[in-house]
Structures are given as structure tokens and as C-alpha cells.
Amino acid sequence: MRLRRKPNAQQMVQEHPRVVNNPQTYKGKWHSHLFKRDRPLYLELGTGKGQFLSQACLEQPSVNWIGVERIEEVLLQALQKADDTECENLRFLWMDVKLLSEVFAPGEVDRIYLHFSDPWPKTRHTKRRLTYSSFLQQYRKVLKENGEVLLKTDNEGLFDFSLEQLEQAGYRLIESTRDLYHSPYLSGNIATEYETKFTSRGMPIYYLKAQPL
Ligand SMILES: C[S@@+](CC[C@H](N)C(=O)[O-])C[C@H]1O[C@@H](n2cnc3c(N)ncnc32)[C@H](O)[C@@H]1O
Question: Is 154 annotated as a binding residue?
């Protein structure tokens, strides 16, 4: 993602009321101490500029939504979109996904969305892919029983890699298609920013839903 560095972006992110600083302090208490409502907790990991979440929080107000993004300039754009919605059920974490299990207690999360995650095509970067086995183990830890991982990508290589890793990590595939827009799974779909770009070029979107066994 190309972006212009903004000198005061870190401070703006830290001071924004939707950003949860020191998220470790809410581990096991996201419902009781932060959202103050016991609703399903859904995470989008690698949220980017926030198009998905700013729509999802409106369409599904009975969910507690959290976006995780590590680049502050990108997160700032997601925060601006979120503020346009006035959703009270949407927060953001400025952090790396690899810290997930330090921030959420076992069984605290209902659903994890991975949308157009960076494919990291070089073999030496395999471990950075958000569906690499070490990430899948963390997701398993924080997900509830019957919790779900949902993935969308334009990248066939990342999709095939994710299918392999999910199987090896003991996840059950519930839904899968290599062309979401010509599949029964499109109903209720909310497009992300990358998705809008790729579908406008006529590219197929790969999609799956999986559950840890
Ligand atoms: C290709 S963009 C996709 C953005 C958005 N999900 C969409 O579909 O439009 C991937 C985003 O994930 C973020 N990201 C990648 N690895 C991450 C990590 N380990 N922790 C947090 N964010 C990450 C990147 O900074 C980037 O903003």
C-alpha cells in the first residue's frame, strides 16, 4: 500500500478515542470493561483504510467490532471513515497481529476476518503471511468454540497456501470458492477497499470460511 508519511500520525492515532491504547489491559474484559455490552466480538486483521468496518458496524450493530492495523497513516484513514459513521460498536488497535494472544483471552473472539492480507510471495517471507501456521495457532487460542476465520483475497497463491496451512493446523473448511462473485456466498458480502479495486477490474475473489476443530 503506497502512502505518504505523516509526521504527527502516531500522536493522532494514540489520542483518537476509538483507538484502544494498552489493549493488554482489556484481555478477558473486552465486553465488560470496554464495550460494556455482551455481544459477539469480531476482528478484522490488517484493516487498511477501513472501508469494510465502517460499513459492517452499521449493518451489524449487535456485534462488537475491532480493527487491527500496524501502519499509523493507514489507520488514521480508517479512523476518519469510522467517525463518519458514529458507530459506537467499533474500536481499533494500532498493533501487529502477532501480539493477538497477548490482547485477547482464550475463547474471547467469535470471528476473525482476513481481508486481502499481504501475500508475501517470496519464500523467505512465508512466516509473515497472516495464514502462516504460527498465526493460525494464535487464532485458535483466542477463538471461541465454533469460532470462525473468514478470508478473502485476489491472490491465488495466498489462497492455496492458506488452504494448506488451515488443513495442517486442524481447521475444518466450511465454505470455499475461487469466485465469490459467482457463488452462493456473495449474499450479505461487504466489499473492502482492495476488493472494490479488484472487482472493478473483473478479477475473481477467492473466499473461504474455516473453523478450528
Ligand atoms: C493489502 S492491505 C488490505 C487492506 C484491507 N483489509 C482491504 O481489504 O482493503 C493489508 C493491510 O494489512 C496490514 N497488515 C499486514 N500485516 C499486518 C500485521 N502483521 N499486523 C497488523 N497489520 C498488518 C497492512 O499494513 C495493510 O494495511
Answer: yes
Q: What pLDDT, on a 0 to 100 scale, did the predictor assign at position 5?
A: 77
Q: Is residue 10 part of a domain?
A: no
Q: Which pLDDT does position 168 carry in this prediction?
A: 97
| 136-160 per-position pLDDT tens digit | 999 999 999 999 999 999 999 999 9
Q: Is 1 part of a structural domain of the chain?
A: no
**Ligand 1 atom 17: the closest Cα is on which residue?**
46
Which residue has cell 512465508? 126
Are the CB atoms for 84 and 18 separated by under 8 Å? no
Residues of the chain with pLDDT under 70: 1-4
Atom of ligand 1 nearest to the CA of 95: 21
Q: 118 alpha carbon to ligand 1 midpoint, in Å? A: 6
Domain count, the chain: 1
Task: Supply angle C-alpha 147, 30, 108, rounded to 5.
Answer: 20
Instruction: Calculate Rg over the CA atoms of the chain.
Output: 16
